[in-house]
């Protein structure tokens, strides 16, 4: 990344040591910045912009284009704050203004929430207002919780740990939506992923359903590049795979021979019935789905109704499946698979099936209804999704070959 830091410093007759002192960093940091060996963190970038009374994009830019121009794919991904839209930068500036208004020497999630509302025109602001969340009400609640500060405000107002986490979450949300830039909706999605903090406390105090707010935000947020979406989802899957020894959902990562055979038998019978009737799409175990909280889950088998999938995705679907199927292997705990199915049912999924080759049973899960167990010799049906489809359970188990 290129920058004009040295030019701005020399214009003011400052040495590197003097600039470092004003910014609260080492002289070596200033030198690394000026020669392009180091890209500043977002808080430091804002601190530098405030010191020189200009915008970040005026100081830091890619070699050929300004900060908010369509830069190269890799440059945008490698430098998150380069991806901030003007609206996103305005949110941060409004958050800093709010911090100064109450005499505080920090920017927390509560100031960013107020900044999102005050920005007024972005998707985040419009969505918050649709839930009846006004700037004045939030400001009142925030002041009630944190009070007024001492008024000793430094030039560069630092972000709290929770605010930094919000910004990191926003970057991940941007990638998940296929966005090249980070905008106000990404900020709000990043905020809603937090489980605590003043902003979350304020929203709960206002009786806001966090899950509903996030779901609505995902509905109105535009989708970007499918390549970006695929990359983000695959990164999450890969990250989960790296933690397979500790992640409860990845205890299912190694199916045994019997589970694989049963899974194939079910998939074939479902596909051969669905395909000629053009009812929808039967998907295998390599497709991940993103839940409302950002969690990526990959069922062994899934089915999506044709009318819900408006276009055939090259990478990952934008909707959750109508049906998810898990086949218990010898290495898995049943409770883990049940929890996984229930996570889908809490979203848009209508039916979950847990096939147990050892017990030769299929358990059917539906939202708000007690689970139903189908035993060997009985017939499995899913009338709400697959009218007239019938599957004798005996066809799922591996026969002894002569």
Give a written overview of the molecule.
The protein is an alpha+beta fold. The chain has 3 domains: 2-83, 434 Repressor (Amino-terminal Domain) (Orthogonal Bundle), CATH 1.10.260.40; 86-224, Orthogonal Bundle (Double Clp-N motif), CATH 1.10.1780; 248-395, tt1808, chain A (Alpha-Beta Complex), CATH 3.90.1570.10. The chain has helices at residues 5-11, 16-23, 27-34, 42-51, 56-59, 73-78, 86-101, 109-119, 123-130, 135-146, 161-176, 184-192, 198-205, 210-220, 226-242, 257-277, 334-345; strands at 2-3, 60-61, 280-283, 289-290, 296-297, 301-305, 323-327, 351-356, 361-366, 369-375, 379-380, 391-392. Helix 11 crosses helix 12 (184-192).
Features of this protein?
single chain, 402 residues, alpha+beta, 434 Repressor (Amino-terminal Domain), Double Clp-N motif, 6-stranded mixed beta sheet, two-stranded antiparallel ribbon
CATH superfamily of the largest domain: tt1808, chain A
Secondary-structure element string: EHHHHHEHHHHHHHHHHHEEEEEHEEEEE
Based on the structure given, which CATH architecture of the largest domain is correct?
A: Alpha-Beta Complex
Q: Overall pLDDT, averaged? A: 82
Distance between the termini: 68 Å
Rounded to an integer in angstroms, the radius of gyration calculated over CA atoms is 26 Å
Provide the β-strand percentage band: 5-15%
What is the strand tally?
12
Count of the domains: 3
Helix/strand structural class: alpha+beta
Oligomer: single chain
The outline comes out as elongated
Write down the CATH class of the largest domain: Alpha Beta
Using the coordinates shown, work out and report the CATH topology of the largest domain. tt1808, chain A
Largest sheet: 6 strands, mixed
């Amino acid at each position: 990344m290129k920058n004009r830091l040295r030019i701005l410093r020399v214009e003011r007759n400052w040495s590197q040591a003097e600039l470092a002192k004003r910014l609260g960093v080492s002289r070596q940091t200033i030198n690394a910045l000026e020669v392009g060996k180091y890209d500043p963190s977002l808080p430091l970038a804002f601190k530098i912009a405030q010191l020189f009374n200009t915008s970040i994009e005026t100081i830091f830019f890619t070699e050929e284009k300004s900060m908010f121009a369509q830069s190269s794919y890799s440059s945008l991904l490698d430098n998150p704050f380069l991806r901030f839209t003007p609206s996103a930068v305005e949110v941060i500036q409004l958050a800093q203004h709010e911090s100064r208004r109450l005499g505080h020497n920090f920017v927390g999630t509560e100031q960013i929430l107020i900044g999102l509302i005050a920005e007024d025109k972005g998707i985040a602001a419009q969505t918050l207002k649709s839930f009846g969340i006004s700037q004045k009400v939030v400001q009142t609640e925030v002041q009630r919780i944190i009070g007024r500060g001492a008024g000793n405000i430094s030039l560069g107002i630092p972000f709290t740990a929770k605010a930094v986490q919000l910004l990191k979450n926003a970057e991940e949300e941007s990638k998940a939506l296929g966005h090249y830039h980070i905008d106000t909706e990404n900020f709000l999605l990043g905020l809603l992923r937090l489980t605590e903090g003043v902003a979350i406390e304020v929203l709960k105090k206002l009786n806001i359903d966090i899950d509903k707010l996030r779901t609505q935000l995902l509905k109105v947020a535009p989708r970007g590049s499918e390549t970006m979406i695929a990359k983000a989802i695959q990164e999450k899957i890969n990250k989960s795979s790296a933690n397979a020894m500790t992640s409860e959902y990845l205890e299912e990562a190694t199916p045994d021979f019997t589970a694989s055979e049963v899974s194939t038998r079910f998939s074939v019978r479902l596909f051969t019935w669905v395909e000629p009737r053009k009812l929808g799409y039967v998907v295998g175990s390599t497709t991940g789905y993103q839940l409302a909280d950002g969690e990526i889950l990959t069922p062994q088998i899934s089915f999506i109704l044709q009318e819900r999938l408006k276009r055939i995705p090259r990478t990952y679907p934008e909707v959750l499946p109508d049906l998810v199927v898990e086949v218990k292997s010898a290495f898995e705990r049943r409770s883990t698979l049940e929890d996984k199915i229930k996570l889908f049912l809490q979203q848009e999924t209508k039916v979950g099936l847990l096939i147990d080759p050892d017990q030769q049973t299929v358990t059917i899960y539906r939202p708000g209804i007690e689970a139903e167990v189908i035993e060997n010799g009985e017939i499995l049906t899913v009338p709400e999704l697959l009218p007239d489809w019938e599957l004798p359970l005996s066809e799922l188990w591996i026969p002894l070959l002569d």
